[in-house]
Design brief:
Layout: H1 10-24, E1 37-40, H2 70-82, E2 88-91, H3 103-113, E3 118-123, H4 126-129, H5 133-143, E4 147-152, H6 157-168, E5 176-180, E6 202-203, E7 208-209, H7 222-225, E8 226-229, E9 234-236, E10 247-250, H8 256-260, H9 263-273, H10 294-298, E11 315-319, H11 323-334, E12 338-343, H12 349-357, E13 361-363, E14 377-380, H13 384-394, E15 401-403, E16 407-410, H14 411-418, H15 423-429, E17 430-432, H16 440-450, E18 456-460, H17 463-471, E19 482-487
Parallel strand pairs: 1-2, 1-8, 2-3, 3-4, 4-5, 11-12, 11-14, 12-13, 14-15, 15-17
Antiparallel strand pairs: 6-7, 8-9, 9-10, 16-19, 18-19
Helix pairs in contact: 2-3, 3-5
Length: about 500
């Protein structure tokens, strides 16, 4: 069976909003990304049991029409006001929000205190067509509702009903958005369909949904910009976590800012940024996770926006000219830093193109590095087999150096380094990428700006070599023990 992914056009609308919000919004303290989207599951009930929704199981998801405590909600809005929250608030997720009779009061509080916030509702439309439904909808708009997304599940005939309603109530297409969820399985029922973190199991001729046997090896951006709050006040790490396995805190007990900035969220972001989904419930989830904000996360703006307060314009030198070098160049340019030099061990076409594109001087001899004074720091983006030589060639220079990946050394080489008379200088100036990706440029900058000393560390790393040795039936000698020479970065929350 082959899954055909239908992409909801609503994603691009939200994508544009998020991109705009993140571009103009400062980080919170200690480099914590700003909250851009808050989703509320305002009550615990729904009048429908859609077969592709986890709520189809009445035993697991009974209808409990209990609303989020209003006082806790008011306190939350006060907390958001303190950080001048100007993002998006949506009433949706695990429930039918229009079953909450005083929903207009929640919206009024939002618009009274957070005038720039965009307020949305996602509904199946049934309460709107019920007695008094139109009046209730208009009361929501008068309270400050910006748009209502109506998901139609029964068929094409519903479109005319809601188009007529839109006309009769004098609503715009932006205020009342109609979504065709009645499409067949060949169009994923009009949904960007997923297994909701392993909560949904469906099988048909087009696709199959079930918990994954192996976690996806790709990043997920959701916990970097949005959060879900359940009707009991629980803050969940993701709106796809229908089993509610990963609860990060509760707004009845702590502020949303403290929860969003806590250790649980920080550790989760580090893992998902590095494509590590090997933890529940992410390990069984098939959600893309990169549909929104993909561009912002790539150039570092999401984790550490380009408004990171760096007064100085740094001059950078890069050793290497491959794909990783290109990515680092994109990131440093996003900070408006200069690429002054590009050193390559071979005079290849790619290096010449890069140097020309970024107006950098191309150097083919690494030993000239001592003569290049107009560089604030260096980034090494070379292949594994060249790293050791490069390390010993440049470890003495009195400039900060970021190695894009760690170096594998035998124990003799390792001893040479730690017994070097200038070892203290090496420790101070040389850093190794923690995640082996270009986000480490930002970690590197922060350490540079705050003058923090980064301690070195080593880990035993002989397994692949041990296998080779065992096959040859040779005894392993002590000097064959290899070390993975890397660094243990101080975590961001300690800055």
């Amino acid at each position: 069976m082959k899954k055909k992914l239908y992409t909801d056009i609503n994603i691009s609308r939200i994508d544009n909003f998020l991109n705009d919000h993140l571009e103009k919004t400062e980080n919170l303290e200690n480099g914590i990304p700003p909250i851009s989207s808050i989703e509320f599951s305002i009550n615990g009930a729904c009048n429908r049991r859609c077969f592709f929704c986890p709520r189809v199981d009445e035993k697991k998801y009974p209808n409990i029409l209990k609303n989020l405590d209003f006082k806790a909600f008011e306190n939350l809005i006060d907390d958001l006001k303190k950080i001048s929250f100007s993002g998006r608030i949506s009433f949706s997720v695990f429930c039918e929000p229009l079953l909450t009779k005083n929903l207009n009061n929640y919206i009024s509080v939002i618009k009274l205190e957070l005038k720039e916030v965009q307020v949305e509702i996602v509904t199946n439309g049934d309460p709107i067509l019920a007695k008094g439904g139109r009046e209730k909808l208009m009361k929501l708009y008068s309270s400050g509702l910006d748009n209502c997304r109506v998901s139609l599940y029964d068929g094409e005939h519903q479109v005319k009903i809601f188009e007529d309603l839109k006309r009769d109530l004098n609503l715009t297409d932006e205020q009342l958005i109609i979504r065709k969820r009645y499409l067949g399985p060949e169009e994923s029922y009009g949904l960007t369909i997923s297994n909701r973190a392993g909560s949904v199991e469906i099988s048909n001729d087009v696709f199959q949904l079930k918990p994954l046997n192996e976690p996806l090896k790709q990043p997920c951006h959701y916990p970097f910009y949005k959060v879900l709050i359940d009707n009991d006040g629980s803050v969940l790490m993701c709106s796809n976590d229908w089993k509610k396995e990963k609860i990060m805190g509760n707004i009845k007990e702590d502020s949303i800012i403290n929860i969003w900035s806590n250790h649980k969220f920080l550790e989760l972001r580090k893992k998902l940024c590095n494509s590590d989904r090997n933890h529940s419930p992410c390990n069984v989830c098939d959600v893309n996770g990169t549909l929104n904000d993909k561009n912002l996360l790539k150039d570092g703006n999401l984790i550490f926006p380009n408004r990171l307060k760096i007064k100085k314009k740094y001059n950078i030198g890069i050793i290497g000219s491959g794909n990783i070098a290109k990515e680092y160049i994109k990131v440093l340019k996003s900070f408006n830093h200069n690429l002054n030099y590009l050193i390559t061990l071979t005079n290849n076409i790619n290096a010449n193109k890069l140097a020309k594109k970024y107006n950098a001087k191309l150097i083919n001899n690494i030993k000239e590095i001592d003569q290049l004074k107009d560089v604030d720091f260096w980034i090494v983006c070379s292949s594994w087999n060249k790293l050791k030589k490069i390390f010993f060639d440049i470890k003495h220079i009195k400039k900060p150096i970021l190695f894009e990946k760690s170096i594998i050394l035998n124990s003799l080489d390792f001893r040479k380094i730690i017994k070097d008379k200038k070892f203290d200088s090496i420790k101070k100036n040389i850093s190794f990428a923690y995640n082996r990706n270009y986000y480490d440029y930002i970690y590197f900058l922060i350490h540079l700006l705050t003058n923090q000393k980064i301690e070195y560390g080593n880990a035993y790393f002989y397994d692949p070599y041990k296998n080779l040795i065992d096959k040859k039936k040779n005894s392993r000698k002590k000097f064959m023990c290899l070390y993975y020479f890397t660094l243990d970065f101080t975590s961001v929350e300690n800055i």
